[in-house]
Each structure stands twice: as C-alpha cells, then as structure tokens.
C-alpha cells in the first residue's frame, strides 16, 4: 500500500514537473547584454548552444532566465538565472556575442515598458491594453530615446489607405508592414496617461528626411468622432499638423472636417483629422516616384515639399510622457 501511494506521489510530481517544463516560455529580451546578477548555474557548451541551454533551463525548475554567450575561442557559455528580467538590470556583455532570454511575467502596456526591460530592436511586440486585450504593435526602439509605438507606417504602397470609418476604427494592414493601428486603440492607449507624438518621413532617392514632435496627443472616443484633442505644442522638428489638433476624424464615408467640400473623398486622401484639409497628408495615394498629382500623394506641403511631391515613407508614433518603469 505504501509503495503504491509513493508511486502515485512520484507520478504526480513528475506530471507537475512536465507541465512546468512545457509551459515555461522564454522570450528573447536583448542582444549583447548580460545581467548584473550572478547565475545559479553556468554550463560550457562546444556546439548546439541553443538546444542545450534551453533544455538545461527547462529541466531546472527555478530557471527563469538564461544568457547564451559566444566566447572568443568559438565555444559557448550558458548562464542560468533564478529570477526574471523584471528583477534584474542589464549591462554590456564582453563576449563576442550574447543573447539574453527571460520569462516575462510583468504586463507590458506599451513600447516604453518593453524598452525599460532592455528591448532595443525595432519590431513587433505584444502589449496589454487597458481593457485587458492583448495587441501586437510595432515599436520603434531607436528614434529619440526609443519606446515609440507606431500607429501609422507606409513605405511601399502595398496597403490601400482610402478606407472607410470602420476600417480606420478597427485598423488595417499588418503591424510588421504598412498599417493603421486603429482609432479605437489610439483612444484606449492615449486616454490612460499623457502621450507625445512623433512624425517622421523621408523622400525618394535619399533626398532627406524630416520629423515633427508634439508634447501632447490624445484621441477621444467614437461618440466624439475620435477627435484629436487640442492643447499640443510643437517641441521639435518642423511644422506639420498644428492646425489639425482639435479636429474630428474624417474618412471617405464620414465628412467631419471644416472644408466646404470633403477633404478625404475626392482626392482619395484617406482618413485624417482634417481641418479645412491639411498640410500633412500621410494617408493619401502612394506614388512610386516623388512626382504626384497635386494634393494626392503622401505630402508634407507648405513646410517642406510642394503639392506635387510625394514621400517615399512615413511613420506616425506615440509614446507615454512618463517613462519611469
């Protein structure tokens, strides 16, 4: 009887061990960085470092993070840690190459949260919105201190931006390509805490790039036509869209602008916070060359380009002002 009970306990412990192993997910956090904390175990590896290091971590129940370093002699060192990135600081590694992985147990609400734990690669990250929904977003980790959440990106004309109200509400395109994040998400993100705005664009044939930065960006809810709240000041770069703050959002099927006609529909300019239209037209028709029909292309007129010049790429980004962890 005792042997049978002991065997059952053994099976239960083994099952729990397997469950923990199978559900332990380590995320790549940083390149060429290492924790300041001491590892609880170090393994020297001559080949197949990823397989051997991850296997070692999975079979160590207390392993929460691991560091794989390539040494100058061509071998590898695998360091196992008993804490997550949330409780560690990272410094530069002196190895030839280093990749740090960790279980992520904290909630990431935006790109700043990812930046604060050491993420420095521009790309797609998953965040949790204030309503509990998980959302994949593009984070720019290089420009102006990093931590910027990209809500508009264009670079090849692969996505049509001449879309209706619901499409701009829900978002379209792909966050790893051309896209509009979605007005409902901009409302959720920017009403929780104060955000700033960064516009970035470049011309064809390496003809230069410009930026414009504002200290405030907040989008109101759908009942208020996703209005871009007023009160922002330009704090960097050239003039761009000061005239658009305080304006409602307009699309090809909802005319909420102050123009006597319709800013979006006749020129296929896409949705935007038009006043009596706008000097900046990042959602217009994409042209494969800089020459475009007047007022149709990706334009930054009056302050940079003429009305017949179109941009090669554009990026609109937001970042919370308080960047403390």
Automatic annotation (TrEMBL):
<feature type="signal peptide">
    <location>
        <begin position="1"/>
        <end position="23"/>
    </location>
</feature>
<feature type="domain" description="Fibrinogen C-terminal">
    <location>
        <begin position="102"/>
        <end position="322"/>
    </location>
</feature>
<dbReference type="InterPro" id="IPR050373">
    <property type="entry name" value="Fibrinogen_C-term_domain"/>
</dbReference>
<dbReference type="InterPro" id="IPR014716">
    <property type="entry name" value="Fibrinogen_a/b/g_C_1"/>
</dbReference>
<protein>
    <recommendedName>
        <fullName>Fibrinogen C-terminal domain-containing protein</fullName>
    </recommendedName>
</protein>
<dbReference type="GO" id="GO:0005615">
    <property type="term" value="C:extracellular space"/>
</dbReference>
<keyword id="KW-0732">Signal</keyword>
<dbReference type="InterPro" id="IPR036056">
    <property type="entry name" value="Fibrinogen-like_C"/>
</dbReference>
<dbReference type="Pfam" id="PF00147">
    <property type="entry name" value="Fibrinogen_C"/>
</dbReference>
<dbReference type="InterPro" id="IPR002181">
    <property type="entry name" value="Fibrinogen_a/b/g_C_dom"/>
</dbReference>
